[in-house]
Each structure stands twice: as C-alpha cells, then as structure tokens.
Amino acid sequence: MRLLFLTHSFNSLTQRLYVECTRWGHEVSIEFDINDRVTEEAVDLFQPDLIVATYLRRPIPASIWQRVTCLVVHPGVVGDRGPAALDWAILRGEAEWGVTLLQAEAEMDAGPIWASARFPLRQARKSSLYRNEVTEAAVDCLREALDRYAAGGFTPVPLAEYPERVDGGWQPPMTQADRAIDWSVDLTGTVLRKVHASDGSPGVLDPSLGDDLFLFDACAAIGQAGFPGDLLACRDGAICRATVDGAVWIGHLRRGLPRDGGLKLPAVALLGERVANLPEIASDPMQAEQGEAIRYEQANGVGYLHFAFHNGAMATDQCVRLRTAVMQARQRDIRVLVLLGGPDFWSNGMHLNRIEADSSTADASWANINAIDDLALEIIGCPNQMTVAALQGNAGAGGVFLALAADRVVVRDGVMLNPHYKSMGNLYGSEYWTYQLPRRVGDEVAERLMANRLPVGCREALELGLVDTVLPARPDAFFGAVTAMAEALAAAPDFAAQLAEKARQRAADEAVCPLADHRADELERMRLNFYGFDPSYHVARYNFVFKVPHSRTPLHLARHRH
Ligand code: COA
Hints:
Blueprint: E1 2-7, H1 12-23, E2 27-32, H2 36-46, E3 50-55, H3 62-65, E4 70-74, H4 85-92, E5 96-103, E6 113-120, H5 126-151, H6 176-179, H7 188-196, E7 204-205, E8 213-220, E9 231-235, E10 238-243, E11 246-255, E12 265-266, H8 267-271, E13 294-299, E14 302-307, H9 316-331, E15 336-341, E16 345-347, H10 352-357, H11 361-380, E17 386-391, E18 394-396, H12 398-403, E19 408-412, E20 416-418, H13 433-441, H14 443-452, E21 456-457, H15 458-464, E22 469-471, H16 475-490, H17 495-512, H18 515-531, H19 536-545
Parallel strand pairs: 1-2, 1-3, 3-4, 14-15, 15-17, 16-18, 17-19, 18-20, 19-22
Antiparallel strand pairs: 4-5, 5-6, 7-8, 8-11, 9-10, 10-11, 11-12, 13-14, 20-21
Helix pairs in contact: 1-5, 4-7, 9-11, 11-18, 13-14
Bound molecules: coenzyme A (COA).
C-alpha cells in the first residue's frame, strides 16, 4: 500500500514505524504537519491508500480525513483522549497502559478503533516508555490494522462499543500547576512521578530553585536524607535534593523554554556558583552503584561497562572518563569487554547541548570530536580482550560508528540506528567511520547509508553486516543472551586464535591505511565544518538544540515531492 505518514517530526516512533512498514513491503512517504495546505498538497501528490498520523500535536483537518482514511497513533488505552495521555498515566501511577490506533474524525481521539494493545507501565521517564513500550505496542497495532485494511471487510469499532475501554474520556493538557512539586509534602515517589511524567518535555518548572528552572532526569538517591527541599550534594553533574522521606538526584536542568534560549544541561553546570560549596560525592566507575552514569561490573572472565549518558550525548569530559574506564577494564583479568551504553540510548555522539553552551562552539566541537575519537581508538586497539558493543538502546551519528569500533556488535530487537551525519548540517563525521563502515558493509553500501540519511532497523542492519546479531527485545532476555554470548566467547577453546586473527587483521589494515591517516583525513573535513566559512553545522546544531520547528519536510523523507 501507499502510506503517507503525517507527523510533527521524524521522531523515534515514526522512524520505527517507517522501518517496519517498509519491511512489510509498503511504500512510505512522509510529510511534516506544517499547515493544512501543505498536507493537502502531499495527499494530492502521493495519492495514499492510507494516512498514518504517527505523532501529531494538532487535529487532522476535515479536508484530509474526509478524503482518505487516517489512522492515528494515540499513546493511551482505548477511551483515553487528549494531548497528554502518557503524562497523566504516569502521574496517576497507572499499573497498565496502552496504545490505541483510531480513525480520525471530527472529535479528537474519539474515532472508531482499528487496533489496541496494552502493557505494564514501568516506573520510568515518559520518553523511555515512549521509545520502548509505546513504540512496540504501536508497531503491533499498526501491523494488525494494515492487515485488516488490506483484507477488507473490517469495520473499525466505535468507541462506545469497544469492550475494554476506560470511561475517563477527555484529559486536558497537563499544566505546570499539575506537575508542580511541593518539597515540603511530596514523597520521593511523588517527586519521581512528577518528573518522569514531564521528561524529556516539558520538564517540571521548579521556582523553589529560583529563576525559571525546569527539572529533568530524576532518580532516587539511596542513603541520602536532609531537610525537605535542601540541596545535599553533587555527583557527576547531578544535584541531590532532600524529600520528606529521602532524596532524589536531579541530573539535568533547563533555564526557560528552548524557544527563549533554554538549554537542557547537567544541573551542576547550569547552577554554577550556587552549588560550588555542596559536598561532591566522587564517582568511581569501577565501584559505581546502580544509577551512576559509568559503571563497571565483572563476572566469569567478562567485564561489563555501562555508560548511561543522558540522551546518549557524550561530552568531552564524559568521553575522557569513559576512556579511562575502558583502559582500567583492559587491565583487569578479563577476556571479553562488553560495552553496554545505557537503557534508552547506546550513544548519539557529541554532546550538542554542551557544545552550544560553550563560549566557542567551534573549539568545543573540536575538543569533543577528538575526545570521542580517542575513546574509539582505545576500543579498536584493544589487544588482549575481545570487545562487544551490546546496544540496548538506539544509536545515532557518531554513536553508531563508536559501536563499530568493537569486535562484535549485537543489538536488542527493535533498536534503531542512524548511521549517518549529514542531517547535522552536512557534518562529515569522524570516529574512524571511513575505516569502520566500508570494512563492514563495503564501499557502495557505506556510501548509500551516508547519503540516504535514513534510519536503519536492526534486521536491515544485520542483513547489511552493520551488526552481527539481533538479540531478544525484552531487557531481561537481552541481558541473558549478552551474558551467555560473552561468557561463551571468553571460554571459547580458540580464544587465543581469535585474538591472534584480530591482531593480524588489524596489522594488515594498518598497512593499507594507518588509523592515524583515517583520523587526520576525517578531522580535516570536520575542521572545515567547525571553523570553515560554511556555517551549516552551526545552524543545524542551533536548530536541533533549541528545537526550532521544521518549516518544510526534508526531500529525502517526502518522496512524493521528488
Ligand atoms: N547531543 C545532545 N542532545 C542530544 C543528542 C546529542 N548528540 N542526540 C539526541 N539528543 C537529545 C535530543 O535533543 C532530545 O532531547 P530532549 O530530552 O530535550 O527531548 C533527546 O536527546 C532525544 O532525541 P530525539 O532527537 O528526540 O530522538 P529521536 O529518537 O527522535 O532521534 C537521533 C534520534 C539520533 C536521530 C537524533 O537525536 C539526532 O539526530 N541526534 C543528533 C546526532 C548527532 O548529530 N550527533 C553529533 C554528531 S556525532
């Protein structure tokens, strides 16, 4: 079928549905919801069988849904309606939530239902639930609905007749008053629910810290307590704040809205002098606890390095600390080093917000790309261990190529990769991609991936040779499979032969073109991106970090406009 995706942006859910629908054999084109006239034009040009509204912030105009069947992905259970479905579900502490695929009609979210799915609601950030449970449920719903549509004869079920529905009806947008934390009465669990319901956007406005500060990235602070609301300590860029029954870590803050120049930054960086006198809790990756960004564990000859950097963004200091942790792990008595990234993202490359906040964005970009290159080099050159990049979460741009530095790349089913840089203002890219990518997928595919700027699902990544194995989607099954695979590798009778082969291959590759030459060539191009006369990268980064709305759909997505 010809499917037109109508969406506010090409976000993770839209990317995943795009990849799946393409795999199921459909022809997909995308139009950003910019204004009604542009959408009508897209429908005229593409003549879709169906429109799928993957992520919209306003209703579909009647001129569209009266003409073509429009399926709307609603991140709520049947009967739930309104623009803040997940926010309310998290704030209320629902045990179970779901996704409904309904047909657009005059009343928002009240149309008849094509499919629905439910899942247990984890205690997690909204963005994490959206990227995982909501996305998986949306894939299931869309597959069911497309099958029903293609088979014909299916009548979507009117809401009032749907057997399993909530009767809450319309839920209004969630205001900052609904999200507000009262530090004098709110329990830790309440504070976490309020921040989780607002994370990644819009955050919880917390005037008690002064200014117009928004809170993000919260977790319980084990073993900390104090007078409710007091700031207790700092650790790894986060601040610890007392609640009535414990304390929470707040990792990130933003002063003001993005459109007013607000940037989401580590809390300590944003508060500066105000927290200079707080006790600093040292963070040692080799002895870190759950909840710390870089954390090392070891068992049965395998080292596991977690690096759960917020949003997968890796700033210069984070790359340096992670590199040190890799070097320390390499000194341990292990045969395999597994690089696990974080639960939602493995890595998204350089930290664009931190770069934007720097007084010299060019210098900060240069330092960041060199730090990430140093880290990649440490992984590529690992002589005594086999390395495994195990991607629990998505990876984009430099983050994908950092993963390719490992000897084996395994991904959790459903993970999305964006193995390209061009969308960020024609960035050339580094992380030794000119070495890593062609040797895995060949020159032709490498060129295509870089030029197409499209997301790659894990099945396609496997077929292309970009990754080696796809492991089960459920986190516990994924970790079980990673552990089994890593331990088998460590215990392999031919382990020494595998290491020798890796060294031989590396030496052969080095003889053809030294890694230092790859890096120098890439950085020469990056230097132009950062310091040259063409400001495209700086403009694209600015638009990205300040979330400047799109004024048109990029042509590589809007195929109907080719
Ligand atoms: N630096 C800083 N923040 C980043 C980031 C980066 N490299 N990559 C993603 N983020 C942030 C986003 O701003 C967003 O922040 P929010 O919490 O305010 O919502 C969050 O991570 C999620 O990103 P989003 O773009 O909404 O996710 P997505 O799943 O829709 O798209 C990518 C994923 C990777 C395609 C997209 O995030 C991207 O293009 N990132 C930039 C990659 C890049 O160019 N890196 C630099 C070159 S190495």
